[in-house]
Amino acid sequence: MRTASITRNTKETKITAVLNLDGRGEADVCTGCGFLDHMLELFARHGRFDLTLRCDGDIQVDAHHTVEDCAIVLGRCFAQALGDMRGINRYGSMILPMDETLMLCAVDLSGRAHLGWQVTLPAEQIGNFDTELGKEFWAGFVRNCPGAMHFNQMAGENTHHILEACFKGMARALRQAVAFEPGFEDQIPSTKGTLI
Which of 38, 56, 88, 154 has its C-alpha lying 20 to 30 A from 129's C-alpha? Predict the structure, then answer.
């Protein structure tokens, strides 16, 4: 089983996380930010990743450090659990409908970090969550599990639905990308011979 365990402590956040890429979608998450907890729980469920994550952050300031640092840790967990990425599909994509929203999410675990974010969020806040932090989360993730991640909004009016479609869609795209390609479990999916 491909697992990772990471602890990261700074003056702004203290985070511990355990990830199993080959899980059943079980999440035990507490970040102090309710909307982020919701997003990480559905991310785990739709990716079939088992995730335990605890964060003690400076949410009395705002949720920025908590969101960004949780993304950093989650990205590092993925990178650690994947190792040299031998045998994986590498690519994954999902067009995810959620009510009026339609989101295209695609990933290439190439070792080269890039975030494509073609997402329009009508509302600046969902509860006390600053919606611009959705992009910050995925930027933090992709810098620490290097690859190309693209989010392309094809339709959507409700900000909650749009961000939720991003997390669900990318979870399912990652699920495809990290899955083993039958018959090629011993090969690096690149003509260069390395993805790291």
Answer: 154
